[in-house]
Amino acid sequence: MNITVVGTGYVGLVTGTCFAESGHRVTCLDIDPAKIALLNAGGVPIYEPGLEELVHRNVKEKRLLFTTSYAEAMKDAEVAFIAVGTPPGENGDADLQYVLAAAADIGRHMTRACVVVDKSTVPVGSAERVAAVLKDTAKHPFDVCSNPEFLKEGAAIDDFMRPDRVVVGVASEHARAVMAELYAPFVRAEQPVLFMDIRSAELTKYAANAMLATRISFMNEMAALCEKLGADVDMVRRGIGSDRRIGHPFLFPGVGFGGSCFPKDVRAVMTMARHVGLDFDLLRSVERVNERQKRWLVEKAARHFGSLAGKTLAVWGLAFKPKTDDMREAPAITVVEGLLGNGAKVRAHDPVAREVAAKLFHGRGVELAEEPYAAAEGADALLLVTEWNEFRQPDLARLKGIMRQPVLIDGRNVWDAEKCRAAGFTYYGVGRNG
Ligand code: UGA
């Protein structure tokens, strides 16, 4: 099939590349000429394990093309995915201007009947707005469907190639047949594409993220209770996760959830509810607990030292999670700002988010170290914010030798408390001790 993907962010680029890999001819379009120039020169604008290799292979095989021209991208296109950003607007609503502009351009440049697919995370009812725009601009018959994306940054290729499920909201048999054919290589017979009405598909995306965010806030709240009651949240986590009705994933307490999706989607569900006269009370708490959790590390450090003024704090990990350089709504931002606000000096290291962090913290006196032990040198405490693999087994003897004071605050519960204490450190974990 000839496929067009509008938007070359995480979702668009991964979607386009994976469909090309399954044998289709895919043209990825972006209105940003710098991005397209970079892609055409063999570069990949985002850090995502495995993506670069796949892009190069499919470009070489001439199945994957990049352009800024709708005329070029839409020539003979049978399916057009809209995968552009939906930043939150001022009132908390997702801003649909890019989605609707893409729909208008798709309509204007169609050269044959086309299935137009919303892949961006959009509020319930958006597909109807896309259809209304297409009605005004399209020169050929069209179908609109909703196909939300569930990929995780850092595991995006695998999530796309081996999805837990594919959700597609359709309103016609033709769209259903096209989408079933497109996803056939990626789904198994026992887990076929889940077809449903369009509004349900749109809401499924938000419901999944809001549910996962709720699990995390629940565990962060439980961690606070464990600290007060002298229980170990890691044991409680294992104990409840073994119940098949609960399951193990997404039960890790930590420094709060961040990224471009959870915080935004939790807010979007509350906004959607408000518009129809409902108060999604539970999610208000989820958000509040998360805001509090992002301040946990700084409060722990402040309580240990009495005052952070003049102290040097080392921070390991800045990205909102491992295997990405993404710092959107990263808890590390709250941590670093909290430390600076308390008069501390901050020396941080992240394996890949260094450049992003340098821009973000520009002129604010945050020292960005090239490697983890350089960040810890002379520090009064070491704070673990992002659980990169390279931080999981620290050389405790080395740390002991270079730090000014032996204090470890583990925001992800990845270090062995006993080992740390045996090596002479004061160790704090989340929900593991007072
Ligand atoms: C999330 C969803 O997991 C994807 O399914 C979805 O497609 C995506 O949002 C999206 O809407 O586009 P992502 O934001 O890439 O993916 O990252 P996650 O791996 O879900 O992590 C989100 C945050 O939760 C991170 O800050 C992470 O550290 C935190 N987290 C995760 C915890 O604090 N505890 C956990 O147990 C799991």
TrEMBL record:
Class of this enzyme: oxidoreductase
The keyword Cell division is assigned to this record: no
Assigned protein family: Belongs to the UDP-glucose/GDP-mannose dehydrogenase family.
InterPro entries noted in UniProt: 6-PGluconate_DH-like_C_sf (IPR008927), NAD(P)-bd_dom_sf (IPR036291), UDP-Glc/GDP-Man (IPR017476), UDP-Glc/GDP-Man_DH_C (IPR014027), UDP-Glc/GDP-Man_DH_C_sf (IPR036220), UDP-Glc/GDP-Man_DH_dimer (IPR014026), UDP-Glc/GDP-Man_DH_N (IPR001732), UDPglc_DH_bac (IPR028357)
Keywords: NAD, Oxidoreductase
Organism: Anaeromyxobacter oryzae
Catalytic activity, as annotated: UDP-alpha-D-glucose + 2 NAD(+) + H2O = UDP-alpha-D-glucuronate + 2 NADH + 3 H(+)
E.C. numbers: 1.1.1.22
Classification via Pfam families: UDPG_MGDP_dh, UDPG_MGDP_dh_C, UDPG_MGDP_dh_N
Pathway: Nucleotide-sugar biosynthesis; UDP-alpha-D-glucuronate biosynthesis; UDP-alpha-D-glucuronate from UDP-alpha-D-glucose: step 1/1
Protein name: UDP-glucose 6-dehydrogenase
Domain UDP-glucose/GDP-mannose dehydrogenase C-terminal: 314-417
Lineage: Bacteria, Pseudomonadati, Myxococcota, Myxococcia, Myxococcales
